[in-house]
## 1
Amino acid sequence: MKRLMTILAAGVLAFSLAACAKKDDAEKETTRATENTQLTEASSSEEKQENTESETTKADVTTSEAETSATEATTEATAEATTTEAAETSAAHKEVLVVYFSATGTTKDVAEKIAKIEDADLYEIVPAEPYSDADLNWNDSGSRSTKEQNDSSSRPEIGSASVSLEGYKKVYIGYPIWWGEEPRILDTFVESYNFDGITMIPFCTSGGSGLGRSGKNLEERAGSGNWLDGKRFGAGPSEDTLRSWIEDLK
Ligand SMILES: Cc1cc2nc3c(=O)[nH]c(=O)nc-3n(C[C@H](O)[C@H](O)[C@H](O)COP(=O)(O)O)c2cc1C
């Protein structure tokens, strides 16, 4: 009997131990499973965060690329506009300008012939107050022209709109000789402009007098520009005469 009781007690003990071991295993499994779940959740959250960040980065890059290409497009558009403007400016301006004043048409004829030969633009200095025949009477010591020529500080007003000299490399400047010099309205003109970088070529018409001091007077009063010597013509010079003078200037 005593032996039987011992066997039974050993059996109960073995069962209890096995049950405990099973319980331990089960608890360990549960813990592992929980840890795995937490790990999975953590890594999935990290992944999600990475994905979000990567998407954000992608979005940033895309935005930045879009901005860059927008900026480039604007820059290109601006460059094109500038080129177009430059083209229009150069198309609107010839390289040579012929400026002239003419009271009775003789200088005007020469100016137009020079402009034709040089393919130049023309600009007429028109007095704000036109000269009448009486004004031009050199036999009258009281006429307007005589009084103006006797006063080196006289500056008759110009009535024609001002001209832009931008883009011109060469400017011819023509006038009649009055009392051996340039009419004072030419002084008004040269004192109103900046001729920097422009070759200035005076020409005049007269009853017989030469250019005299007129070219030098204009150069001094202008104070800018590269002034050549210039030339006097009689009434109605031929195109050949003018062409050969122009060729000699080059
Ligand atoms: C007020 C006045 C003064 C002049 N003085 C001279 C002169 O000193 N020497 C000369 O040879 N011709 C003189 N002339 C003649 C002009 O220079 C000449 O007729 C000129 O070609 C006129 O040019 P225009 O028709 O373009 O005005 C004078 C003409 C005027 C009206």
## 2
Amino acid sequence: MEKLKNKRVLITGASSGIGKAAAILLGQQGVELFLLARREEKLLEVKRLIGDKTKVEILVADVNDKNISEKLASFTSEKVDILINNAGLALGRDKVDHSLWEDMEGMIQTNITANFRIAHTIVPWMLKAGGGDIINLCSIAGHHTYPGGAIYCATKHAVLAFTRALREETAGKNLRVMQISPGMVDTDFSTVRFKGNSELADSVYQGMEPLLAEDIAEMMLFMLSRPRHVVIDEIITMPSAQGSPTTVVRK
Ligand SMILES: NC(=O)c1ccc[n+]([C@@H]2O[C@H](COP(=O)([O-])OP(=O)(O)OC[C@H]3O[C@@H](n4cnc5c(N)ncnc54)[C@H](OP(=O)(O)O)[C@@H]3O)[C@@H](O)[C@H]2O)c1
């Protein structure tokens, strides 16, 4: 897509799932990719899949690294046209009184602190350059709550609030602040949530057809390819068998 060609795109959490699918689809549009995640071998695999269609740089880093801003500055030379602020996770599905504090803290740090810090780092670069695009990965858990999801839902409610306020703050500055809030997407999300218990993870998607990471990547491409005066504020999307986090129709 000519409009996106040579744009510099930073994707956090690009080693798997939604971030990986976004990297592959946006790579096909000729954007220059800056991919970040902790697992080097997975990032190298994404780079290999994209092949020589476009320039791909990888940064093996934890978004919770206290030096993440400095790392991003040298990784991207402070030039980012599009930020896909996607790295995130759920840990556990227990009620608060049975949850591990390490899990709760891990979600708060990754989904809130790191997400906000990355936006805080990059927004000034975008404003100085005269504009840019941000897509934050929220969730229907940013709009609803469910038992066993108190902390994950709270973190995604925080993302929703941050996106909305940032959009108000930057209106009129050619900075499009956008958000995607998916329901169930078949990625490594549930495997991570259930700490490698594949039986539990598989049961999440049993008897229903979840969204695919590629569906979300297509939505991102639609958002990013609108004319500059159009902002898709948010896409809330679910599989057709899902009505809310707790309403899923299974065969
Ligand atoms: N799947 C769903 O049903 C669903 C629904 C709504 C919203 N979401 C949101 O979508 C986003 C992507 O999730 P996904 O479904 O694609 O899950 P996924 O397949 O598990 O991918 C998560 C990505 O985040 C990265 N990540 C996690 N913690 C990180 C850290 N501390 N530092 C750097 N990278 C980190 C992982 O990379 P490494 O492990 O290699 O670091 C991985 O690339 C998340 O924000 C999630 O909350 C997912």
